[in-house]
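Methods — Computational structure assignment.
A single polypeptide chain was analysed. Its primary sequence is given first, followed by the predicted tertiary structure written as structure tokens.
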Amino acid sequence: MADVVYPSRTDEKLLRIEAPGGEPVVVNMVVPTVTEPGEPFVLKIALADEMGYPSVEYGGSVTVRGNFAVPDSVRVEFEKGRPAVAHLHGVTISEAGLYRFETTLGDRVFHSNPTKCTETPESRIYWGDPHVHTVLSDCMTANCRSLQFCYAAARWFAGLDFVCAADHVSGDRCTLGKWMEQRAACEVWNDPPAFVTLPGYEASLEGGAGGDNNVYFLGKLSMFVDEYKTGNAKTLAEKLRELNPELEFVVVPHHTTRTGKHGEFTSDIYPGPETMPVVEIHSKWGTSEYRGNPNPLKKIHPGPSYVVDLLNQGFPLGFIGGTDTHSTMPAGFGRDHLDKALPGMTAVKTGELTRENVFQAIASRNCYAASLERIYLDVDVAGSPMGRQLPWPDARKSREIRAAAAARSDITRIDLVRCGETIHTHTPHDWQAETTFTDETDLTPLVLSSPYLGEFITYYVRVTCSSGAQGWSSPVWLLLDR
């Protein structure tokens, strides 16, 4: 028997007062991406209006169904005047497989994200939005909401496993008082293994100096470090390390193709592979994967600042996604700088859900990015999982690439990308798919080189869904001179 749990009175008031939604048009159901047979888990359900806000106008019920689960049907009641959100505790699946739950609202059918139920999971997959702005950013403030709302909405309405309120600090937008408030709230809301808050902030740099970057960290940081109009991504990292020698941190660039804030990198401003392990490939601003992609930013820098450009320069960058929301709607929509733009999310592959594990998964590139949907994605290149560097001394030896994916909507394409070029496409038109491709190309004329990798070849996988959602595996690097 599953127990239906509703938000606390405080969480409910935050959702109802700060983002009261109208009649529901969407049912979002979230389940863990990886489960074990017989293991109890939480199914999260939320009803949203046409702008993506939690509905407070629904008085009725929805029935969650899954003939593979125990219980196989649960009716969830909602009261008009209260946010239509709930958690179902104690759901189980008895047999291994890939599954989606189903429900209806009116004459529309909605599915959950897929869950892979497996006997021996090597790791779990947790979802988060590492890029949320609140009123403390002093940026598009009229659209933003409170820091407390950010955490309540992330946990209850978006059903996320982790979130980062990465508020602006540059241009005198942050004071010591704001900083202390941010850090205190981050600790109060951190509740592993149910929900994790990741400490961080956004530091803005000039175009050509590294652009806009988020700093994520573990440990105590008594005051943020900023290099606005005075330094670059490298000096930002150097100053952080100098003033806080015990601090673990990473610096992550985003919307690298945005005009005026572009993230062109040279060795002079690159802080190094350990300090900058990943790049935000997608946010509500658009996708920065490659020039000509289907979801570009509105105003694009003409220079080589796409993620593919950075990879081909030899910067070993894994992929994350975030909303960069300025309506404080984690992994969601709302009235924003781009109202209907697809939200981004980050999937981390790790063990138990803790702040330390989330941070280390990002720092070690054991992560991938997605837009709109929580896409299950499992990729290996010549037996190496995503985010890894694999010695490959023989450029003529063939490589087998395997990709398995599942999504809430049908998958229309799975593209295998080598050094920025698509070399294989699979078009399943189903919600779950697998593809295997053997690349027999002689890599000798394709080899790239950099001081950070030596001679290398890069592979990654892109998934595209009928809803417009996409997923991007972190790359695998073949190192040909080792």
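Note: The radius of gyration is 22 Å.
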